Amino acid sequence: MTQPLVVFDNVVKHFGSYHAVERMNLEIYKGEFVAIMGSSGCGKTTTLRMLAGLDKPSEGEIRLNGERINDLYSWERETPLVWQNLALFPFLNVVENVEFGLRMRGMAKAERRKKSLQWLERLGLEEFAMRDISLLSGGQRQRVALARSLVTEPSILLLDEPLSALDAHLSVRMQGVLTGLQKDLGITFVYVTHSQSEAFAMADRVVIMSRGRVEQIGSPKEVFLEPHNRFVAEFIGGKNILCGTVIGFDDRGLVRVGSEHGEFLARRPEGKSTTPGERVTVCLSAEHIDLTEHPRQRNRLTCTVVGEEFIGSMVNIYLDAGDGLELQVQKPHADYNRLGLRNGQKIVAEWDGACALILRGD
Amino acid sequence: MNEHRLINLVLRSYVVLVFVFIFTPIAGSVVFSFNIDRFPSLPLGGFSLHWYETIAADPAVWQAFKNSLMVGVVVSLVSTVLGFTAAYTDFRYQFFGKSIYMALALLPPTIPVVIMGLAMLAFLSRVGLSGEIYAVMISHVVMCAPFAMAVIRMRLAQMDPNIEAAAWNLGANQWKAMRFVILPFTAPSIFAALFVTMAVSFDEFAVAWFVSGLNETVPVRILNTLQGQVSPTINAIGTIVFITTMTLVILAQLLLMRRHKPATA
Predict the structure, then answer these.
(1) Is the pLDDT of residue A330 over 70?
(2) Cβ contact (<8 Å) for B261 and A134?
(3) Which of A125, A337, B192, B212 has the most C-beta neighbours closer than 10 Å?
(4) Residues of chain A contacting residue B160, judged by C-beta atoms under 8 Å apart
């Protein structure tokens, strides 16, 4: 495999006694779109700031193109950042903002103006070049910030929740702009977000962080289909978590798990061994549960309907399975209407054992 | 609606009264500076530029204006630089004892001027500067720098701290970020600070009186004139000082009001 563009090698960052990032190991390759995802305070922004040279790692090493960059100042590395609040220069107009990076590199005025205008044109902003920043809309400012960071033709672009201030519609359009740019330019994007939909829609790989630690790295599909642990499963949502003890195996190679809700079957992730008596956490996607009055599967729970919630084309149905276990089931509208559920109604939730996944970690 | 109108009327009258209270004595001084009579009395005797001609012919007044101008220029430049550095330190750095640092930096204007004057006199005479024009400059810098700091600090408080970091991130080292981001952003407040500090210095009497010796500034000249005789030339000088100071302060205010652009993008 080729040399990674960026390597985080056992990187630790603490602010006083607060540990923002703990033993981070991450490799980012050329031309990749990597999203770092997590809730607020998980260390994702600190990670990005360390890469941008705005925070210095307390321990470990960050390498860019194989060279240690821990001690380089932000202005000594080529890691432009698109800020969450954009941080455009309010006293400069659009094109002056864009050419700032070239000006700092000492490029002659005519040349940097020409280049900046090209970038503005590329992002559909040429008619606003002389306009004051304060007169632009949110989406236009966003593109100015992008142009300002890209004008120096970096090999990597860092983005810190750049779409969080936009409305949903505009955000989706900007996602298209970003992925398009990233493909065209062939440069690496490192994108920090708390939004799963943004990360999954755009990224080649996602890094899920929690409390300063990396919980899982993988393609959106891998993470969605095989979350490594309970945190990831809960973070990406739409997952039910069951706990139990391994009893044995059935003839299909599925694991028999005994729990306080009865015995059910679950699949092992590849490469994980289980032994009888071991405590396991099982994850079951909301869309893999069927609701029926005539159960066919061995995995079933009799539940009470406690609520439902419309989310676009799907309906979330919440069930009380007794003993403090609540299940979330996701159904298309047609199926939901056919079931004709009422709150308080008893119904059987069942699923194929091959759809229930034993998690690698807790 | 009627109630609102009444409250409005009362509030407006109140504001007008306050201004009348503040400006009547000054207006009186201005009016009498153009009055021909030797002693201020009503009705007015007649319009005359006599008192202005008198001061224009008085070399001591010319010297006083020259001194004040020289002191004012030096003081405004030095105290604005000092004020800027203090304000930027406050904006940029967190350090142990910062609140004490800020309190000390803002302290001089709260010291009674007589005490300040005495202390300055005692100190400056010990270092052999008492009676020199530098003595007035040094004292005024001490008194004016906090005003400059306050004005510039207000502007920095409106700045998104990320824009400085954004400049670093785009390849500007700390000096370039200062030159191309911090200074352009704070420029209106820097000019305002120049004008305000010059006005404060131009007006300051007590400390200058203690330390100026023979290098009289304008306010010191006024008092010395007053001690010799009651002359309407004081009204004339006072009018010039008032107009100068007001011009400076209004310029500063105009600069500070130009910050309608949002500070963050």
Answers:
(1) yes
(2) yes
(3) B192
(4) 85, 87
